[in-house]
Amino acid sequence: MNESFGFDIAVVGGGIVGLASAYKITLAHPDISIAVLEKEDRVAAHQTGRNSGVIHSGLYYQPGSNKAKTCAEGRKELLTFAKRHRIPYDICGKVVVATHERERANLEKILQNGLENEIEGLEEIGPDRIKEIEPACEGIAAIWVPSTGIIDFAKVAEKLADLVEKKNKGNRVLTSHKVTGFDRHDFYTEVRTDQGSIDAKYVVNCAGLQCDRVARLDNVEPDMRIVPFRGDYYELTEEARGKVKGLIYPVPDPALPFLGVHFTRMIAGGVECGPNAVFSFKREGYGKTDFSLSDTLDALSYPGLWRMFLKYWKSGLGEYARAFSRKLFLRQLQRLVPSLADSDIKPCRAGVRAQALERNGKLIDDFRIERQANSIHVLNAPSPAATASLAIGDYVNKMATKYFKL
Ligand SMILES: Cc1cc2nc3c(=O)[nH]c(=O)nc-3n(C[C@H](O)[C@H](O)[C@H](O)COP(=O)(O)OP(=O)(O)OC[C@H]3O[C@@H](n4cnc5c(N)ncnc54)[C@H](O)[C@@H]3O)c2cc1C
Fold first, then answer.
1. Mean pLDDT along residues 249-264
2. What are φ and ψ of residue 360, in 5° steps?
3. How far apart are CA 379 and CA 222, in angstroms?
4. Considering only CA atoms, which of 39, 397, 386, 374 is closest in space to residue 211?
5. pLDDT for res 13
6. Is the CB of 283 within 6 Å of ligand 1?
7. Could you tell me the distance, in angstroms and rounded to a whole number, from the CA of residue 237 to the centre of ligand 1?
8. Cα of 385 to ligand 1 centre, how many Å?
9. Residue 316 has pLDDT above 90, yes or no
10. What would the DSSP string read from start to end of 10-72?
11. What domains does the chain contain, in order, with CATH numbers?
């Protein structure tokens, strides 16, 4: 790569959001040259390649929010995209199951929310119908969501990377290029990387777990901080896989932005159980005891983190206990599938979610995308951002078209 080569736009981050943004900009503006800069040696190395692989229907999101709108649009577009590019997916549907009377009211709220979001085919079902759909699952009531599906988001990201380079011969997806700083000049920005500098007129920051740091490198002080929440997964052994047909979710705690430990059939085969949500002492740390001094000091110096700990200490401690105790993790799974035995599960992998936190300790629920003079910063793109990625790409393209005057 000739490092002195200039681009119109540099996109930081080769996850699904950065790649979908580059793809949508290149479709709308075929003459604009784009460099996607990814620090790892492949695209989709972090959240995009380590998620549950669920195509969300949009059931939970506040009507009218960016999450609700982009999830609905993005889901439909994702299926068209997958069909066209022969990426396997399966609309297998899911059940959200109440196992206790105290969960009924929340289940009803979720149903009403889903109806308001116009999710097609929603059904309130009872124990008999639950058994028809998921014979091993015991619940007192549930919502059947037939439009939920499964896909491998890393495959979607790889295809997007391929198309970004094919649609314009001037575009590049440069892996192993870590962005380390920006030097602003009158008519362009010198984007410093660990492989030399690249000139670009505009910058789009889609750095996921590092997005607040990349924003600060660009002299933007965002009013939030990324908090990493690790999610551990177990998988069902081959003998136990028959206990789960599709996707089984609990009724989530409405105070938290996570959906609770669930069962997910994976598109490549197998059934995974998870993820929990544990504050991680390393932003890209996938081991239970991974620790980064700089990440920890950075997090602890933010008042929002202490306020969050105070607010959620009880559920946080519960998550820690389950992270280190297989028995407690299993007990949570058994609430949905009581016949599950210890010998039915084995530990598999982990992912880390990038969740934006405000100074007052509030976890930011909706997607957040901000603009600064010559840059756009995607500052909160947690789940369902993989499902919604193509619609988020449209949103970023519209901002770029307007503010970069493309
Ligand atoms: C455990 C888990 C389960 C989830 N389940 C689902 C699900 O089932 N369905 C769904 O729709 N969503 C799900 N999500 C959410 C979804 O995965 C994310 O919202 C989405 O992948 C975000 O994409 P991204 O491109 O913003 O981030 P990422 O995929 O993390 O990409 C950001 C990229 O930026 C790169 N980067 C960072 N800093 C730099 C730098 N300085 N220079 C160059 N590159 C840099 C990183 O290496 C990374 O590749 C889940 C997430 C997790 C973690």
1. 90
2. -85, 5
3. 8
4. 39
5. 98
6. no
7. 27
8. 8
9. no
10. EEE--SHHHHHHHHHHHHH-TTS-EEEE-SSSSTT-SGGGSS--EE--S-SSPTTSHHHHHHH
11. 6-48+154-224+367-403 (3.50.50.60), 91-148+225-357 (3.30.9.10)
Q: Write the DSSP symbol of residue 208.
A: G
pLDDT value of position 3: 43
DSSP code at position 268: T
Q: Which residue has the higher pLDDT, 368 or 299?
A: 368
**Residue 2: per-residue pLDDT:** 38
Could you tell me which of 199, 224, 287 has the C-alpha nearest to residue 4? Answer: 199
Q: Is 393 in the pocket of ligand 1 (CB under 6 A)?
A: no
Name every residue whose Cβ is closer than 8 Å to that of residue 347 and which is 6 or more positions away in sequence: 232, 233, 234, 326
Dmax (CA) of the chain: 68
Question: Which residues lie below 8 Å from residue 301, measured CB to CB, with a gap of 6+?
Answer: none
Query: Quick check: 358 and 223 in contact, CB under 8 A?
Result: yes
pLDDT digits (tens, 9 = 90+) for 37-46: 999 999 999 9
Residue closest via CA to ligand 1's atom 37 equals 207
- Can you read off the two tokens belonging to residue 352? 């880390």
Q: Is 49 in the pocket of ligand 1 (CB under 6 A)?
A: no
Q: At CB < 8 A and 24+ separation, what contacts does 372-375 make? A: 372/218, 372/219, 372/220, 374/184, 374/189, 374/201, 374/202, 374/203, 374/404, 375/189, 375/202, 375/203, 375/204, 375/205, 375/218, 375/220
Mean pLDDT in the chain?
95
Cut 0.85: pTM above it: yes
Q: Which amino acid is at 231?
A: G
**How far is the C-alpha of 16 from the C-alpha of 160, rounded, in Å?**
8
Q: Kindly state if the Cβ of 149 falls inside 6 Å of ligand 1.
A: no
Nearest to 45 by CA among 208, 248, 250: 208
pLDDT in tens, 7-39: 999 999 999 999 999 999 999 999 999 999 999
Atom of ligand 1 nearest to the CA of 383: 15
pLDDT value for 354: 97
Cis ω before 254 (30° cut-off from 0): no
Nearest residue (by CA) to ligand 1, atom 53, is 353
Main-chain dihedrals φ then ψ at residue 184, nearest 5 degrees: -80, 130
Confidence at 173, pLDDT banded by 50, 70, 90: very high
The closest-lying atom of ligand 1 relative to the alpha carbon of residue 178 is 42
5 pLDDT band, cuts 50/70/90, is low
| Look-up of token digits 């994976």 | 266
